[in-house]
Amino acid sequence: MKGFIFKASSIFTCFIPTKLLIKLSGKKIIYPFYHIISDNPPPHIKHLYPIRSVKQFEKDLDFLQKYFTASEFDSGNNKPQFILSFDDGLSEVYDIVAPILKRRNIPAIFFVNSAFVDNKDIFKNYIFSLKQENPETDYKKYLTNKKPYLTSEQIFELINEGFKIGAHSINHPLFSEISEAEQIKQTKESIDFICKKFGEKQKLFAFPFTDDGVTDVFFNTVFENKIVDYTFGTAGIKDDIFERNIQRIPIEKYGLSAKRHIKTEYLLYIIKKLFGKHVVKR
Questions:
Q1: What is the pLDDT of residues 95-119, one digit of tens each?
Q2: Domain containing residue 165: CATH number
Q3: What is the DSSP string of 156-210?
Q4: pTM for the structure as a whole
Q5: Torsion of CA 131, 132, 135, 137, to 10 degrees
Q6: End-to-end CA distance of the chain
Q7: How many domains would you assign to the chain?
Q8: Which 8-state DSSP code applies to residue 272?
C-alpha cells in the first residue's frame, strides 16, 4: 500500500519545481543511499530488490548535482547538499561506484558489515537469492570464487582516495527482532572493527534494514556512552527526535529515478509536516 501511495504521489511532482520543494520543506540536506550499481545484477542480489544500471545511476547523479552540492558528512555547508552513502560493502562499490564518484568529485560513505569483509561470511538474504537462482549453489564456494564483498585491501584504498567507511552491524540482523543487548553488541563491535582495523576516527553507524522499532533506550545508550557519533535510518526525508539519528532516502526501494523519488519525498514531507507527522518518534 505504501508503495502504491508513494508512486501515485510521484506523478504530481512532475508539475512542481525541485527548488520550490526544497524551499517549502526547509530541508536543505538530503541523504540518498544505494546498495549496488551494476549492468549485470549478480545472483546473490538480483532476486531481492531493483538494481540501478550504470546509466541510471549517472542520470541520478546528474539530477543530484544540478540541484545540490555533493558534500562530505558533517561539512557545515548550509547550501542545498546531498551526502551519498552505500550499504553492505559490496565489491561493486570498488569496481563500479568509486570510479564514477571520483570522476564527478563526489564523496561518499560506504557502510560495511564486519563479518562479511574479506568474504568471510555472507548475508542470509543473499543465500536465499542464490538458491532461487540455482538451488545447488554452495555459498561458501561462491564467496571464494565470486568475492561479492569488499576486501580489506580495497577498503584501505577507498579510504586513501578520500571516501569514508562506516559500520553496518556485524552480520545484518533486523534490529527490531533482536534483544537490546544484542543491538548494542552489533553496533559496538562493528564500530570498533572499523575504527581499529581501518583507522576511522568518526563513528558512523547505519542500521541494517531499518531503525523502525528501535527504542529510545538504545539511542540514549549509544550516544551517552559515545559508542557512536551518528546513526542512520532509512525512513526517507524525515526529522527524528534524536538529532544524531539521520534518516536517509532509499533510492532503490520503488524503482523510480532519483529525481522522482527525491521530489516525492519532499512533497510527502511537506504534507506530513502540516499534520505533525514528519518526525520519527520512538
A1: 999 999 999 999 999 999 999 999 9
A2: 3.20.20.370
A3: HHHHHTT-EEEE--SS---GGGS-HHHHHHHHHHHHHHHHHHH---S-EEE-SS-
A4: 0.96
A5: -50
A6: 23
A7: 1
A8: H
